[in-house]
Amino acid sequence: MQSFIPIPRTLMGPGPSDVHPRILTAMAKPTVGHLDPEFIRLMDEIKRLLQTVFQTDNALTLPLSAPGSAGMEASFVNLVEPGDKVIVLQNGVFGGRMAENVERLGGTLVRVESPWGRAIDPAQLEAALKAHPDTKVVAFVHAETSTGVKSDAKTLCAMAQAAGCLTIVDCVTSLVGCEVDVDGWGADAVYSGTQKCLSCAPGLSPFTLSPRAAEVIQSRGTPVKSWFLDMNLIMGYWGEGQTRAYHHTAPVNALYGLHEALLIAVDEGLSASWLRHQRNHEALKAGLEAMGLAFFVPESERLPQLNLVTVPEGVDEAVVRRQLLADFNLEIGAGLGVLAGKVWRIGLMGYASRPENVLLCLSALESVLSASQAPIHRGVAIDAMQAAYSAA
Amino acid sequence: MQSFIPIPRTLMGPGPSDVHPRILTAMAKPTVGHLDPEFIRLMDEIKRLLQTVFQTDNALTLPLSAPGSAGMEASFVNLVEPGDKVIVLQNGVFGGRMAENVERLGGTLVRVESPWGRAIDPAQLEAALKAHPDTKVVAFVHAETSTGVKSDAKTLCAMAQAAGCLTIVDCVTSLVGCEVDVDGWGADAVYSGTQKCLSCAPGLSPFTLSPRAAEVIQSRGTPVKSWFLDMNLIMGYWGEGQTRAYHHTAPVNALYGLHEALLIAVDEGLSASWLRHQRNHEALKAGLEAMGLAFFVPESERLPQLNLVTVPEGVDEAVVRRQLLADFNLEIGAGLGVLAGKVWRIGLMGYASRPENVLLCLSALESVLSASQAPIHRGVAIDAMQAAYSAA
After folding, report:
1. Separation between Cα atoms, residue A99 and residue B149, nearest integer Å
2. Distance from A72 to chain B by nearest Cα, in Å?
3. What is the ipTM of this complex?
4. CATH code for residues A21-267
């Protein structure tokens, strides 16, 4: 066996997205101790930068030392005690995982399903809250990575809060790619991942808890089932100043990378980043539609950073993806769950959301689909893309 | 805020240890997708390399996507169901965490304590097994990071197995630094960390499960309380071939680093690595003892990779550590738990276990202790170190 030399790819799937070269360089800097004063300064900066991108003043804002799925688990394992009633609004794979978390923890699950590929319908939440006035937590996914759908987090959080419920909101794919406004929404537990619109390597989960949620955790009747994710302990490690209580060894080099990713995001500015994601999405859309390809999600519910495209009749979607990878080192994503075989997931996330990638994706798709005799319009996608950029 | 430029340190604490430059370089390679065929090949190689360093044929040998504490939690959350009786042999901080895991999961805890700074006494396990014939799991720490003590894993595992119990063994600090022989011991769940003798960045937990343990997990009566650490799901992702079920997004760049670290360890050879750790330990010991400093742990129970040194009377240990860091960029560790203020923990782990570091540590300690009027013998440590190397 030899040292691993990865083939350079362009990552336009549902994540990981292309990692910015500045971030790769940051991760290779010499490791320092996790209790080193220099590192503690870094931790403080990361907390402040995360507050900025989450748009929150929550003191409990920090990266968990594990991927986004651990952020989901941390939310549920800390807020849900056995017997607690939890409404999970599900419109894709990741809402399903939320439901599984509730069941494993002995919570009482109220599952409210919306169609895959559609936003969550606030009327359904209203009905569920009325039917279950003893609900403690309402949980949903802001940006469903399995369907490319954005739900109206502001409205859903407001309804939950009016009913006296806590909210858990999955922002794995939304953070930095479209508006996430934790304090504006009044959300209580929000988590994300590093490998989507932050363009950082996968492995960490940015996480934030409202003071209300922190209070609920501190006054639990039963111990948190997880030692590793017990926020009572993690708070002691990520708390203020030099009096940190050792909990676990922080993933030092991964945090170098996250710090750099957050600097890049904050330097660009959140609104500028959302606008960039929207513009590149419009250009991709124009090109794909000119080719004759259709989007799976209604326009007003689409995530600009994750485009679900219906696979044309008679085309083997896996063959197309393999060809894109083999011929052009371009990765796009497959459908997940019930959408397997039916859609592609094309990500334009963070550093990968650039005109040169839109161009590459349109040209490569046209090349591969043409070669496989798929019924597409040829020679028109680039003009359509160009027109969309000019109109923007 | 600006990009973080760490001050280069020499890491001779209890971990993280100095990361090998080859590993830093590996982590900065371009990220590929976690379902990329190239990455799946890397995962297969990592599994094989981990089997080599763990000395096991266990098919279920893989790195968990979180630090060593998650490895501990994965062991307990998968093997312990509510009401299961677990004997925890505790002789330091990390045995205490094991006990906490059992309690949080609703297991019935039998805690057997040995003095801090001493190996676990097999006679105590014998008595506990006799008193509790309905025990399901015996858990202990092979190399206690809080005390620098090595326990006799082979004997303890054999006794547990004879009583029909499963074993959970913490090898966070031992792996690659001294013998870990999973199949020879007959251990059932063994976990480690990347930031000790593998000299890799912190953040992952090498993990292995015996077929017997896997069977117990597959036939559980209750679901695993953790979705993120449920081995039934993780097995599906790290299983053989191209039919992997997506579970979470693997920490791609961290795994590049682990692959490189494992290559370095296997290229050196396990016996050669253990011998190197032992020789550098002997040289450090000779120098420290010549200075008049004393070891905290009886000679036969010491870990060569983690040296607990008693702080001399009248010396403020924290001042000394701060001075070592300020003057020489040298990090050594403080005492943990009941040993806080009483000992230093000096690591010679992996890439950090080198004669130049032994020399640096002895010289720097002599410089700082002399300046603070500590009662040490001066000008003799280097000769003693040199003599030890010559005798080896």
Report:
1. 44
2. 9
3. 0.97
4. 3.40.640.10
